[in-house]
What does this fold into?
Amino acid sequence: MAGQTKKSETSSAKAFVCEHCQKGFSKETVLAVHNCETKRRLAQEKESGVRLGFNCFNQFHRSLRSTAADKTYREFVDSPYYLAFVKFVRYLVEIRAVAPESYCDWLLRNNKKLDDLVS
It folds into this structure.
């Protein structure tokens, strides 16, 4: 009887845990196909719109504080500003803006909101 209890405890335990969202899964195959928001964002790191969004995010933080240390990509992914910056930069890429980073600088200097510019 003690063996049955141990077996049920083992089977109910989540042996495989997503390192990004800490969600547990009973099978490794389910974990492999699991795609949480953080995992998806980390996989998009090499996309041009995301890279430019990350650069604009760092410009934004440099304008807020005088320290020279940039944020990491992981801090960008976890930021509530991630979608706003990526959406804005993808819009700039879509309209073929000449100098997106200079435009980001201008927006920051003039206190413009990103959400107001992208529909």
